[in-house]
Amino acid sequence: MSWLTAFRAIVAREALRFVHQRERFLAALVRPLVWLLVFAAGFRAALGLSIIPPYQTYITYETYIVPGLCGMILLFNGMQSALSLVYDREMGSMRLLLTAPLPRWWLLLSKLAGATAISILQVYAFLAIAALFGITVPGWGYVTVLPALALAGLMLGALGLALSSFIRQLENFAGVMNFVIFPMFFLSSALYPLWKMAESSELLHDICAVNPFTHAVELIRFALYLRLEPWALLWVTLATLAFGALAIWGYDPARGLIRKRA
Amino acid sequence: MSLSVADLSFSYGARQALDAVTFDIAPGRFCALLGPNGAGKSTLFGLLTRLFTTAGGRIAVAGHDLDTAPRRALGAMGIVFQQTTLDLDLTVRQNLRYFAALHGISGREADTRIDAALDRLDMRARAGERARALNGGHRRRAEIARALVHRPRTLLLDEPTVGLDAASRSAITDHVHDLCGDGLTVLWATHLTDEVRADDHLLILHQGRILRDGRAAEITAGSNLSDTFLTLTRVAA
């Protein structure tokens, strides 16, 4: 019972923090919308798409990148969450959480769940705006994508959590942006299908194929069209467990993450 | 004993921060942990609150071993960190509710306890104010009230008066001394000798070692605590 009380409180606090940071919500939406409405419009003419699963007909480029942009929101939010964790640690408020009489893995999981719930809300806001511009998916797709978004959000949030445990100073966070977010996003199937990537470079294709973000995007893509991609599900589940384990290890008191600033 | 530390050692690489620190604090006592900057107070605090752990030594809070029963031990202690840990965008009550929930206390029970804790620190009237709007002294009081919500047996405070004016310092020191009258054990880390009273249990920590452990009046033996402290730490240096 006390575990659930703490869980609810941590999730509610994340939500409250989000309400207090409306700019963050807008920024999280503007980024994928610019990609969807500006970048995709330019690319539509240059990039031809064949019929590939889960699509059963030719689709516009805008339709193709919607799942990737959903992933982009989750990815950036995961990193934003990591940034705020590093900030909380430097400012001290993380200590309050870590000294609560509950297992650390549970406290971290609660924080992760809260951040993921906020990310999912943003994805739905994005999908609603995309629908206003005529970029839609099957009606039930908005429901079936929910578990895929949750799992992908947990995976990317866990990655952010793990990274935050290794970043000693806030100033180092820019490096994470350059070395994690951008390669993860661009070396994936978010913007172009993997077969298209293989045409230009087999090596890049292989890198994309092992990138967990690729599988998160494909999981979302298939779920939006009422289909399950088992291989993507397996990849994302394994990556979530691996990143989660890394985060728990990173925040282990025996590792002394906070000792330098204690 | 409310707080028992035995043979606690810790090092940052080659630098020894704590060297076989041992002490016990009896229930209901105010214990001042006095040490100059760099003495190891914050390291000791980090270990007592399990922000990090060490293989060398043992800590027990209200009889619960921090290593083998961390949840019980942490549940028995209230903590006030040196840096403020209030969420400045939340009201005082919201901050306390959040903390209560982390300890598994919610609903009416949480509100009752929050009111009682705020009353003890004369902060009830400020419950609806955002933490950001409070001055430094009131923020500290809110943090102390928060640390009492789950009715801990031991209260740990790490230099809680840093950055406060003389009046606020004095008020907070008085408040926390008063809490001991209710049976609460207090460990108060400080480098300011004027926060220690003659009847307090005093630990003098320097270069990671306990130099003196006893009643303040007995350690000073009639002389001024500042002079005693300076003499001891100079000799040890």
UniProtKB/TrEMBL annotation, chain A:
Per UniProt, residues of the ABC transmembrane type-2 domain are: 23-254
Going by the entry's taxonomy, the superkingdom of the source organism is recorded as Bacteria
User: What transmembrane ranges does the database entry give?
Assistant: 33-52, 64-87, 108-133, 139-163, 175-195, 231-251
Q: Which InterPro entries match?
A: ABC2_TM, ABC2_TM_bact-type, ABC_2_transport, Alc_ABC_transptr_permease, T7SS_ABC-Transporter
Compartment(s): Cell inner membrane; Membrane
Keywords carried by this UniProt record: Cell membrane, Membrane, Transmembrane, Transmembrane helix, Transport
Principal subcellular localisation of the protein: membrane
Q: This chain belongs to which protein, by name?
A: Transport permease protein
PANTHER family referenced in this protein's UniProt entry, alphabetically: TRANSPORT PERMEASE PROTEIN (PTHR43077:SF10), TRANSPORT PERMEASE YVFS-RELATED (PTHR43077)
Query: GO CC terms for this protein?
Result: ATP-binding cassette (ABC) transporter complex
Q: Which family does it belong to?
A: Belongs to the ABC-2 integral membrane protein family.
Entry membrane topology: Multi-pass membrane protein
Query: Which GO MF term does the entry hold, naming one?
Result: ABC-type transporter activity
UniProtKB/TrEMBL annotation, chain B:
Keywords assigned by UniProt, alphabetized:
ATP-binding, Nodulation, Nucleotide-binding, Transport
Statement: the UniProt record of this protein carries the keyword Nucleotide-binding: yes
Output the InterPro entries linked to this UniProt entry: AAA+_ATPase, ABC_transporter-like_ATP-bd, ABC_transporter_ATP-binding, ABC_transprt_ATP-bd_su_PQQ, P-loop_NTPase
List the SUPFAM superfamilies hit by this protein, alphabetically: P-loop containing nucleoside triphosphate hydrolases
Q: Which GO terms describe its molecular function?
A: ATP binding; ATP hydrolysis activity
Q: Where in the numbering of this chain does the ABC transporter domain appear?
A: 3-232
What's the family? Belongs to the ABC transporter superfamily.
Q: What is this protein called?
A: ABC-2 type transport system ATP-binding protein
